[in-house]
């Protein structure tokens, strides 16, 4: 008997509708957060849906973000010259995870380990890409995250 296939993280969390609920509620919290609200003051009403599409693609869902917004190079451009700090990065991760709990998203150890791993990795890249002198590699591949990813060091090359 063949075991059932392992679902993607995207499927496990409930797909794009779950991600849209998460990002919509998360950015409602961000708007009320003293540390993060100024960072996202420029954000348009469509920002939560864009982030949901990005996260969905990274976590194994359809390539919607790449098709509609330009993939990882576009996301990198959104962080250029934003001067993000570790305090803001940590708060962003903390608030996103708290929102996931609020919405009763999966909290099994395997899923949360994978999610936290991606959020830590991705948010640290966002800080790097927000500093003076950062540039965009127009060929940067879209990150893909699964149940046990380990990435090499970021070299900026």
Automatic annotation (TrEMBL):
<dbReference type="GO" id="GO:0019825">
    <property type="term" value="F:oxygen binding"/>
</dbReference>
<feature type="binding site" description="distal binding residue">
    <location>
        <position position="50"/>
    </location>
    <ligand>
        <name>heme</name>
    </ligand>
</feature>
<dbReference type="InterPro" id="IPR009050">
    <property type="entry name" value="Globin-like_sf"/>
</dbReference>
<keyword id="KW-0408">Iron</keyword>
<dbReference type="GO" id="GO:0020037">
    <property type="term" value="F:heme binding"/>
</dbReference>
<keyword id="KW-0349">Heme</keyword>
<dbReference type="GO" id="GO:0046872">
    <property type="term" value="F:metal ion binding"/>
</dbReference>
<feature type="binding site" description="distal binding residue">
    <location>
        <position position="74"/>
    </location>
    <ligand>
        <name>heme</name>
    </ligand>
</feature>
<dbReference type="Pfam" id="PF01152">
    <property type="entry name" value="Bac_globin"/>
</dbReference>
<dbReference type="InterPro" id="IPR012292">
    <property type="entry name" value="Globin/Proto"/>
</dbReference>
<keyword id="KW-0479">Metal-binding</keyword>
<protein>
    <submittedName>
        <fullName>Group II truncated hemoglobin</fullName>
    </submittedName>
</protein>
<keyword id="KW-0813">Transport</keyword>
<dbReference type="InterPro" id="IPR001486">
    <property type="entry name" value="Hemoglobin_trunc"/>
</dbReference>
